[in-house]
Amino acid sequence: MVLNKHYYYDEIFQDIKELSLTCTDFTTWRILGTSHDEREIPMIRIGLGMDSLVLTAGIHGRESVNPVLLTKLAEEYCQAYCDDSKIEGYPVRELLNKCSLCVIPLVNPDGYETALRGYNMIRNPILRQLCKMRGIGAEHWKYNARGVDINRNFPCKSYIQQQLGEYPASENETQALMRVFEEYETVGYIDFHSRGRIIYYYRQAMPFSYNQHNHKLARYMQKLSDYSIGKREEEYLSHLNGGTPVNYYSELLQKPAITVETVEETAGFPLDPSYQEKTYREIHALPLEIINKT
């Protein structure tokens, strides 16, 4: 995968699938579920470790940089594993045999395709019309094909209904990610979004000791990425900010859950693919650092 260009859903899907078929000795590939507009949600698991670190991107459709970066990351890690080489000094094969990676580059494929290519990419005519009636420019579309914000749909303490027809875990995409948390033995979760080059660690429903440990991990990540550490109050500027997958994961498993916001705060939508190369350099070693510190 060459950076600094747009990749559409079909290309990301095929890349992940072919990568796993090429590296059968240490990867597995599976479909986690199907979106409301009938697109399959792929995952690749890299490594032979019994435990896993979960990585997600593309929960918000318009955040088009990170799905490409996680696909590129999967490629780079697989190559380093095959070669028994290092990335930024980290011994990839050794670390991934200790703890595997569950890489889900595109949780919300319907929203991603809509933001990149317009509302005509919603194939279901009823869903397409309902989304268009929201009056939002396609390039700003962060929701799924039912117009639901997946990042506010998880059944945790902070969940608040934001529209009719929505309830906790009402969405196919939400359920697909929840299955990963429930079916795999995991050590932590990193969710990649795109706004501000900030690392958020604080989980309001969790005790001080949990947030203290999360903050320690965030500081390790900060040193590698040169991102800022989000303040506690910044994560809850509105009562509508709850229901996120990191909140759900932390409450379900009491394990580290961190949000990494890539790309400058001033970046406009659609996100320019020229952000990809610089952002990739900033984040590509973060999962290895977390595994190394686990």
Walkthrough of the structure:
The protein is an alpha/beta fold and 294 residues long. The chain has a single domain (9-293), classed as Aminopeptidase (3-Layer(aba) Sandwich), CATH 3.40.630.10. The chain has helices spanning 9-22, 65-83, 92-98, 109-117, 125-132, 172-183, 208-225, 245-253, 275-283, 286-293, and strands at residues 27-34, 40-46, 51-56, 86-87, 90-91, 99-104, 186-193, 198-200, 228-229, 257-261. The protein has an eight-stranded mixed β-sheet, sandwiched between helices. The chain has a two-stranded antiparallel ribbon with strand order 4-5. Helix 1 (9-22) runs parallel beside helix 2. The radius of gyration is 18 Å and the shape is globular. The two termini are 29 Å apart.
Summarize the structure.
This protein is of the alpha/beta class.
Write the H/E string, N to C: HEEEHEEHEHHHEEHEHEHH
| SS field, number of helical segments | 10
Q: Reading side by side through the largest sheet, how are the strands ordered?
A: 1-2-6-3-7-10-8-9
* Number of separate domains: 1
For the sheet with most strands, the description reads: 8 strands, mixed
The CATH architecture designation is: 3-Layer(aba) Sandwich
* The CATH top-level class label: Alpha Beta
Beta-strand fraction estimate:
15-25%
User: What fold name stands as the CATH topology?
Assistant: Aminopeptidase
Provide mean pLDDT, rounded: 96
**Total E-strand runs:** 10
Overall shape: it is globular
Which structural class matches the secondary elements? alpha/beta
Output the CATH homologous superfamily.
Zn peptidases
Unreliable stretches (pLDDT < 50, length at least 5) are: none
